[in-house]
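User: For documentation purposes, I need each entry recorded in a consistent format: the amino acid sequence on its own, followed directly by the corresponding structure tokens. There are two entries in this batch. Please keep commentary to a minimum and don't merge the entries.

Assistant: Recorded as requested. Entry 1:
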Amino acid sequence: MKKIFFLSLLALLAIIESKPVAAQEIIKKNGYKLTFESNFTALDPQLKKRLIKTFFEVYPKLAKEYNPGTDKSVTFFVDTAYKGVAATANGKVTYSSIWMEKHPEDIDVVTHEVMHIVQDYGRSVGPGWLTEGIADYARYKFGVDNAGAKWNLPDLKPEHTYKNSYRITARFFAWIEKYVKAGTIKAVDESLREHTYTKDIWSKLTGKDLDGLWADYVQQPNL
């Protein structure tokens, strides 16, 4: 019995030791706190510095523009087990170590993800394409090095719709801001956070519904 217990204990210890332990660092600046965690031992120290620098550069700007009441404390976690690009929940952004290693130039993945913290829609009353479109619009507007990542807003194609999400939707929003009414996306973002959003808000803000705005955009899509 003792032998079985001892062997089980050794097996448990082996599992614990084989699981990477997240190293943690806490950085505070201008009223904001970033807890940086990583279980990726090969993380480039310069990339880590850029991730931290980008947070403190863009997050206060996003907060000021969209939601001054946003969380002042955020966590970054570079995770070897995460297979996507990045994901955000409850004030924590998880980054894929694989993506970071292959795409170290994509520093504005930070801008997109921390915008989700600023959005703070909870159980959103709006569609998912709108949430992601606003986050990519924020990346377009506040990104620190989109050019370095070769990240841009794609030219309009016949198969595009405003519901495509991400960069396609973001480009449409940039067009609305430039040619229809500045401040529209900020107002829509606020309505989503306050859970007052309905599709009628577009007509109230611009005089046209989304389909009408898109029709105009298709006729003259240049930015």
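Entry 2:
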Amino acid sequence: MHAEKKILVRFPRSEFSHSLGQKRPLLPKHVWSIRVRLEMADNRRDLALFNMAIDSKLRGCDLVCLKVRDVFAAGRVKERTSVTKSKTGKPVRFEITETTRHSLERWIADPEMLGLEYLWPSRLHHSVHLSTRQYARILRDWVTSIGLEPSAYGTHSMRRTKVAQIYKKTGNLRAVQLLLGHTKMDSTVRYLGVDLDDALTLSEGIDL
């Protein structure tokens, strides 16, 4: 008998690993469900953190390092702000919507925040602010609480959530590129997972 021949299919390492590890953005119904649960629990820190993660579109490492002064000045939460990204050293601007401003105001006014510099103080003595690992665990609790599979979501899900909706509604990749702070458009295309079907769907919506 002849030995069976095994056929190995090799994928481009970088492209395959990227798509395999891509975390899903939250859908609007997921955002609403998590937000309602946090409001009902009166979890001020997590509600402000959740809302800010969506609005800011920041990487987890930059989100956890936010300081009160980054978002709060002259007795009120700013409508827009700018922070320097740790990965590139370049500033990125983002909006703070009314819903997020309200949750931030309640959190900053909380007695737990009295006199503190960082927006998300750690409850562990050896750290002045949340670590990215702690943030990832908190996010896992959020998605699990509404019945989602936690392995499909990560901190990048929060970064992608709003821009995925912006792209879906407008098809404006340049706007998404600016909001994410990408220097190259192809990075934005890969990040959103844009393919030909997406382009055709957008094209079908335009009747000339």
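Summary note for entry 2:
The first strand starts at residue 72 and ends at 73.
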